[in-house]
Design a protein that fits this description.
Blueprint (H helix, E strand, L loop, with lengths): L24 E4 L9 H11 L3 H13 L7 H5 L9 H8 L11 H10 L3 E6 L4 H8 L6 E4 H4 L6 H11 L7 E5 L2 H10 L3 E5 L2 H6 L10 E3 L5 H10 L1
Parallel strand pairs: 1-2, 1-4, 2-3, 4-5, 5-6
Helix pairs in contact: 1-2, 1-4, 5-11
The structure holds magnesium ion.
């Protein structure tokens, strides 16, 4: 497995040396880019009556097998109709809170905005998350969810609708920042956007890049992003 800071691809980026013009618009994914999802998983672990450690172990195993969180709940609670627990989960979770935000989010958005970049938030989320994100007053130019766009990543329709929402002719003007290789990196590159892989959260740590996939930027946190993009643009 290739890990950040060791060998191979997927290492954190050096200052960017690209021939392409720098993107003018930065789109930030939600889960594990803005929002630490620890509470999401803790509430599910409580609902199915298992420990946080067991839940995390099974989630990690599922991700390593190319599956996702939807395969975890039937494994941990085969006799529970977990789909029927979704409302209970939502009630206990209570939506996004200030302390769910990664600490580097607000400084990153402030620096990007001050440097003249347009910043948009867009991810796979239910419709009610838009108001919760707007209530956090992140200072971004737009917030939009898959529910509003009418398609979920990695469906190309998500990125087509996102491009239309942003109102940009050339998708290469957009840098999509996400934690998942499949949903974010491969899918945004496929849509003609530029890509930044943020290696945090369970997918960001466990997934690996296919040989023919090369995001413009690989990071372990958002702190360096404004400087990397500014140097890319102005260099
Ligand atoms: Mg995510």
């Amino acid at each position: 497995m290739s890990r950040p800071g060791t060998t191979g691809r997927g290492e954190p980026s050096e200052p960017v040396d690209h021939h392409d013009p720098a993107p003018r618009i930065v789109v930030l994914d939600v889960g594990e880019v803005l929002i630490d999802e620890t509470r999401v998983w803790q509430v599910w672990a409580d609902l199915v009556g298992t420990s946080a450690a067991t839940f995390a172990a099974v989630l990690g195993a599922a991700i390593s097998q190319g599956q996702d969180h939807r395969s975890v709940l039937p494994l941990l609670a085969p006799n529970l109709a977990w789909e029927e627990l979704a409302d209970e989960h939502e009630e206990r979770y209570g939506g996004f809170r200030e302390d769910d935000l990664y600490a580097d989010v607000r400084p990153c958005i402030a620096e990007l905005t001050a440097a003249g970049f347009t910043v948009v938030v867009a991810g796979n989320q239910p419709a009610q998350r838009t108001a919760q994100l707007e209530a956090l007053a992140l200072g971004v130019d737009d917030v939009v969810t898959s529910a509003e766009l009418g398609a979920e990543k990695p469906d190309p329709a998500f990125f087509a609708a996102l491009q239309e929402r942003i109102g940009v002719d050339d998708p290469a003007d957009v840098l999509y920042v996400g934690d998942r290789v499949d949903n974010d990196v491969v899918a945004s590159l496929g849509a003609g956007m530029q890509s930044c892989w943020l290696r945090r959260g369970p997918w960001g740590v466990l997934q690996e890049l296919p040989d023919d996939v090369e995001p413009a930027i690989v990071l372990e946190g958002l702190g360096e992003l404004p400087t990397l993009l500014t140097v890319w643009r102005d260099g």
